[in-house]
Design brief:
Blueprint (H helix, E strand, L loop, with lengths): L22 H11 L7 H7 L7 E3 L12 H11 L2 E9 L5 H17 L4 E4 L3 E8 L4 E6 L5 E5 L10 E10 L4 H17 L10 E3 L2 H11 L5 H25 L7 H19 L13 H25 L1 H6 L8
Antiparallel strand pairs: 1-8, 2-7, 3-4, 3-7, 4-5, 5-6
Length: 328
């Protein structure tokens, strides 16, 4: 179990207002409710390497923050911190979906009976907290509003988007926190340098190359304004998590000082970026591309320096993994 006694220098979680809702938000709600993770959420974001991911649509569509291989990354996220989990996912238009849906309903109810909420995709990541067999509904929390809503059993997985997904956490094995931290930074390098094979490169960009896609979209004004706003706000929150996590990790690995400084600067640049974004009541955000472009270039340069500093620290294990630093 990752608890406060293992990382005494980490301050208590303050639970600021949520700007975004993500898989990590949902995961944190489940793990903290069951006592499996008692550190601040930014520590979970870092230990699972989630805050280091950067992938987006080349026109900055609003699906950018969730454009990645869920099954693979959520498995790795759980494994990195010693969580045992199972997942189910697919497309609800598949002819076999009703069979998978029926099984998923049984597994979710079983998990709830054992006291463990379930992460589920309902056009965003939500947490199913209880069920009502008499009404034949699940009750779930929207992370951003904390409102409890009902989901009929027969509507599980039938989302506006064509895919469905749920993850059930079953238990935890103890892991050495220093090894968890070390591996998370190896994954940071992997996420910065390797394109997600599930995403067509003609439509999506990943890692440091995502900055070039941002610059192309904004300079050519070929972007979705609402999607760009949500994407930049989401990644600003991720970079803030990366900054807080790396600074806390220095207590266990002092050599990370240079990396922590880079991520603190990166978070500050993203803060400047979001300060230029102006959402309005019509939900058509106003962007200022000419003022954003130099900041995005600075963010790219700063993040590249952060990754290079990690490469210097972990040169031997990275080289030992040959052409796939993501191997564990």
């Amino acid at each position: 179990m990752m608890n406060r006694t293992e990382l005494d220098s980490v301050p208590a979680a303050l639970h600021p207002p949520q700007l975004t809702h993500s898989y990590v938000d949902a995961m944190y709600q489940v793990l903290s409710a069951n006592g499996w993770f008692t550190l601040p959420k930014y520590m979970l974001s870092g230990m699972t390497a989630s805050c280091f991911r950067l992938s987006l649509h080349r026109q900055l569509h609003r699906d950018s923050p969730t454009a990645y291989n869920w099954m693979a990354e959520h498995t790795v996220a759980a494994d990195l911190i010693g969580m045992i989990s199972t997942q189910a996912a697919g497309f609800h238009f598949a002819p076999t979906f009703p069979l998978y849906q029926k099984q998923a309903i049984l597994e979710i109810r079983k998990s709830l009976e054992q006291g463990t909420p379930v992460v589920c995709w309902k056009d965003k990541f939500v947490v199913i907290t209880r069920s009502d067999d008499q009404k034949q509904v699940f009750c779930y929390n929207e992370i951003s509003s904390r409102a409890e809503l009902e989901l009929p059993y027969d509507q599980l997985g039938r989302n506006a988007s064509p895919y469905w997904h749920c993850q059930i956490f079953e238990g935890q094995i103890r892991k050495d926190i220093r090894q968890v931290i070390r591996e998370s930074f190896l994954q940071a390098v992997y996420k910065a340098e390797v394109h997600d094979p599930m995403l067509p490169e003609s439509q999506y960009a990943c890692g440091l190359q995502a900055y070039d896609a941002m610059l192309d979209a904004l300079s050519g004004r070929s972007y979705d304004a609402s999607g760009a706003y949500e994407t930049l706000v989401f990644y600003a929150a991720s970079k803030k998590d990366a900054s807080s996590y790396t600074r806390a990790a220095c207590e266990y690995w002092p050599e990370l000082e240079s990396t922590a400084s880079h991520y603190e600067r990166l978070s500050a640049v993203y803060h400047e970026i979001t300060a230029l974004l102006s959402p309005n009541a019509s939900h058509a955000p106003t962007l200022r591309p000419q003022r954003l472009l130099p900041l995005i270039r600075e963010a790219k340069h700063t993040e590249a320096e952060a990754i290079q500093s990690i490469r210097v620290l972990l040169r031997e294990p990275i080289e030992n993994r040959f052409h796939d630093v993501g191997l564990r």
